[in-house]
Write a structure and sequence with these properties.
This protein has 188 residues and is α/β, with parallel strands linked by helices. Helix content is 52%, strand content 12%. It is built from seven helices and five strands; from the N terminus they run βαβαβααβαβαα. The protein has a five-stranded parallel β-sheet, with helices on both faces. β1, α1 and β2 form a beta-alpha-beta unit. α4 runs parallel beside α5. The longest helix has 19 residues. The protein is globular. Bound molecules: iron/sulfur cluster.
């Protein structure tokens, strides 16, 4: 019998490669918990893009709530950090912790996340938080680096073929501002 794995999914396009890679070894359920995505319109857009993919491939999914206030409380004091800096591990932990709680309450053996597929995220930050939570909750964590072997590129291509767009900033308002400033500097 396959082990039950709860896959934390950050967005639809990133899930395509990871789901296919894991589905032969695990019984999968997707878990969308990302109140780091702002504004709410963008959050809904990414959630609905994922829902389209999940429906098409008949993936079981859980969509957890949009706990925006709790997310801002969690990252308080780290607002001025750059993307990939000290705010991101706190954000990863906040999201993954909810997945671990769900996993323990619903009898999953393991948790994994699509987060490491992004070239702009530090894999060690994600896996460090996942491993600490695995100890805390007594549920396994699959420490992976899905961007290896062109994972991101493949996922992006598959997303485009299905007509789903990859977002152009990580998610939080700080990463959105950072991206806008970067674009403005590059266009000068
Ligand atoms: S840049 Fe991305 S990972 Fe870092 S805090 Fe913002 S949403 Fe979270």
């Amino acid at each position: 019998m396959k082990k039950k794995l709860l896959l934390h999914i950050c967005c639809g396009p990133c899930s395509l490669y990871v789901w296919k890679k894991l589905q032969t070894d695990y019984e999968l359920c997707g878990y969308f918990f990302n109140p780091n995505i702002q504004p709410f319109g963008e959050y809904e857009f990414r959630r609905l893009e994922l829902a389209k993919i999940a429906e098409r491939f008949a993936w079981p999914m859980v969509y957890a709530g949009y706990d925006l206030n709790d997310w801002f409380a969690a990252i308080r004091g780290f607002e001025r950090e750059a993307e990939r800096g000290a705010r991101c591990p706190v954000c990863f932990r906040f999201r993954l912790e909810r997945a671990f709680r769900h996993a323990r309450e619903h009898g999953f053996d393991t948790v994994a996340s699509t987060l490491s597929i992004s070239p702009s995220k530090v894999t060690a930050q994600i896996n460090g938080q996942g491993q600490a939570l695995a100890e805390k909750y007594g549920v396994g964590f699959l420490a992976e680096n899905f961007k290896k072997k062109d994972g991101f590129l493949i996922s992006r291509r598959e997303g485009e073929a299905l007509g789903v767009r990859h977002q152009d900033y990580c998610g939080c308002v700080y990463s959105k501002v950072e991206r806008l400033l970067y674009r403005r500097r590059s266009s000068r």
